[in-house]
Design goal:
Blueprint: H1 18-57, E1 58-59, E2 67-69, E3 73-75, H2 77-83, H3 87-105, H4 111-129, H5 132-135, H6 138-161, H7 169-190, H8 193-229, H9 231-260
Antiparallel strand pairs: 1-3, 2-3
Length: 264
C-alpha cells in the first residue's frame, strides 16, 4: 500500500516502523479480499435465486398457465403467487427487514450466524428481484450487469487507492439517499415516468459515490481499528462491510437497468 509507509501511525498513538506497516498492509489486503469474496458470493446467491424463481414461475405451455403477464409470459401457480398475489409484498419487504435485523444485531451475533443471515438475505433479495426477468429482456439484464460490475469495480478501486479524504461526502450522500427513498415512495402513488427517470439518474450518482466512499471507509476502519482487534470483531466487520458494498452494487444495478434495460 502506497500510504502505509514508515510514517504510518498505529491506533495506539506511536509511529509504526516498516515491519508494522507491512503487517498492517498484508492484513488490510486479506481483510478487503474477504469483504469482496463475501459480496461476490452474496451476488451469486442472489442471481441463482432470481433465476430459479423465474424458471419455476413461467411456463411455455399456455394450457398449463393460471395467468398471463404481459403478452407473451405465462405464469404457473407458483408464478401467480410470487408475482401477482399479495404474497409478493412479503418477498419485496423481507430483504429490507433483514437488513435492519442484521445491522441492529451484528455485535451480538457469532460470525457464523451473521454469515448465514447474509446468505439468507442474499437469497431473499434474489427472490425479490426475480421479476426483472419478466420486465426486461435477458440480454439487456446481462449487459447491464456487466456494465454495473465494471462501474462498481472502477469506483471501488478509486475509493481504495485515492489519497483524497472522502469523509465529508458521507453526509451529502446520505441526504441524497434519503431523498431518493422519499421520492420513490411518493412515486408509488404518482406512477410518474418522468419522476422515476429523475430518481434513477440521481440514484446512479448517489450509489456511485457511496461505492467509493464505503470502500475508503472500510479501508480506514481496518487501519485505525480492526488491525489491532482481529478475531470475531474483524470477521463481523467484514460481513457488514460486504453487506454495504453488496447493497451499493444491487442498487446501482437496478437503477442502471431502469435507464439502460430493454423492456421485453
Amino acid at each position: 500500500m502506497s500510504d502505509l509507509d514508515r510514517n504510518y501511525t498505529s491506533p495506539f498513538g506511536r509511529v509504526a516502523g516498516r515491519a508494522d506497516a507491512a503487517t498492517v498492509d498484508a492484513g488490510l489486503r486479506a481483510y478487503m479480499l474477504r469483504i469482496y469474496n463475501y459480496m461476490s458470493i452474496g451476488l451469486a446467491i442472489t442471481g441463482l435465486a432470481a433465476l430459479g424463481v423465474y424458471m419455476a414461475a413461467v411456463t411455455g405451455d399456455p394450457s398449463a398457465a393460471v395467468a398471463r403477464f404481459g403478452n407473451n409470459v405465462y405464469l404457473t401457480q407458483f408464478g401467480y403467487a410470487m408475482f401477482v398475489s399479495p404474497l409478493k409484498w412479503l418477498f419485496i419487504l423481507a430483504p429490507l427487514a433483514m437488513v435492519f435485523a442484521i445491522s441492529a444485531g451484528i455485535n451480538r451475533l457469532a460470525p457464523s450466524t451473521a454469515q448465514l443471515l447474509f446468505w439468507v438475505f442474499s437469497a431473499l433479495m434474489g427472490i425479490s428481484l426475480s421479476s426483472i426477468f419478466l420486465v426486461y429482456t435477458h440480454t439487456s439484464i446481462v449487459r447491464v450487469f456487466f456494465i454495473t460490475a465494471a462501474t462498481f469495480g472502477a469506483l471501488s478501486l478509486y475509493g481504495y487507492t485515492t489519497k483524497r479524504d472522502m469523509t465529508g461526502f458521507g453526509s451529502f450522500l446520505f441526504m441524497g439517499l434519503i431523498g431518493i427513498v422519499i421520492a420513490s415512495l411518493v412515486n408509488i402513488f404518482l406512477a410518474s415516468s418522468a419522476l422515476q427517470f429523475f430518481v434513477s439518474i440521481i440514484g446512479v450518482f448517489v450509489f456511485a459515490g457511496l461505492t467509493a466512499w464505503d470502500t475508503q471507509r472500510l479501508k480506514n476502519e481496518y487501519i485505525y481499528g480492526y488491525a489491532s482487534a482481529g478475531g470475531d470483531i474483524a470477521e463481523r466487520a467484514a460481513i457488514t462491510g460486504a453487506l454495504s458494498l453488496y447493497l451499493n452494487f444491487i442498487n446501482l444495478f437496478t437503477l442502471l437497468l431502469q435507464l439502460l434495460g430493454q423492456r421485453d
